[in-house]
Amino acid sequence: MNHFSSDEIRPRRRGLKALIGLLASAALTAALMAVASPASAQSSPTGVDVSNWQGSINWTSVKNAGIDFAYIKATEGTSYRDPRFDDNYPGAYYAGVIRGAYHFARPSYSSGSTQANFFASNGGAWSADNLTLPGAVDLEAPPSGARCYGLSTTQMRNWISDFYNTYKSRTGRDVVIYTTASWWNSCTGSWTGMAAKSPLWVAHWGASSPALPAGWSNTTWTFWQYTSSGSVSGIAGNVDRDHFNGSQARLLALANNT
Asked: Which of 25, 39, 68, 133 is most buried, taking the most CB atoms under 10 A from its CB?
């Protein structure tokens, strides 16, 4: 997320012990880093996802730190707009970071169509400009209340389909689905109906590879949020870190719908 008995050579023994200790510490550090930042995440495009909680962000520093892409919170439910979105979204663009917007879903508030329209009208739109990813819908348990928002698995599937169809009608793009395997499988009844449509952004922290929701496979997930405690120059405190499952050229192709 590592012999000698005479007084004359005791300093050498202490030096040897110190060296062994340093090597052991280095090995432990490398092992911990391997969990926090998987090898695959170090060889392909890397990203962050941010919201108002990260405070003011220096996007030039973020870009210079090697970050290729970012997802930025735009909206939640039917009325909330992230207060830092209007700074973060253009800030990432002008720094040369490929960015996309995301919507935190509240399926108990209103229909999928209503929330997709709200999202698309408040930052979630798309344009082919080499720097804009399709919007994402964040589907996870709420901070409080029913894990599945009080919806049956059939109702949740219908809500997601409603959001997807409306977003695609508005933007021409397939919405990216952010979720975890456990939430998706329990709240949609292990539904496989979106796997052929939506790119998957899966959250699974501290693992060497992500557990996947029903329908997606090791070759079909698109983004992986692999830690919530990363650090990046230009962002104060911890930040979610993400890995793209492909090359820089493939990331650009996703951005441009090519």
From this structure: 133
Specify the CATH number of the domain 39-256.
3.20.20.80
Q: 87, 140, 162, 174: which is the annotated catalytic residue?
A: 140
Q: What is the pLDDT of residue 156?
A: 98
The β-bridge partners of 224 are 202, 243
Report the length, in residues, of the chain. Answer: 258
pLDDT digits (tens, 9 = 90+) for 43-90: 699 999 999 999 999 999 999 999 999 999 999 999 999 999 999 999
Rounded CA-CA distance 89/121 in Å is 14
**140 carries an active-site annotation:** yes
CA dihedral 67, 133, 185, 182 (to 10 degrees): 20
Whether residue 138 lies in the annotated active site: yes
- Residue of 2, 85, 61 lying closest to 234 (CA atoms): 61
Which of 68, 76, 82, 138 is an active site residue? Answer: 138
Residue of 49, 76, 82, 240 with catalytic role: 49
Boundaries of every domain in the chain: 1-36, 39-256
For residues 213 and 179, what is the distance between their CA atoms, to the nearest angstrom? 8
Average pLDDT, the chain: 87
Cα distances from 247 to residues 40, 134, 243, in angstroms, run 11, 17, 11
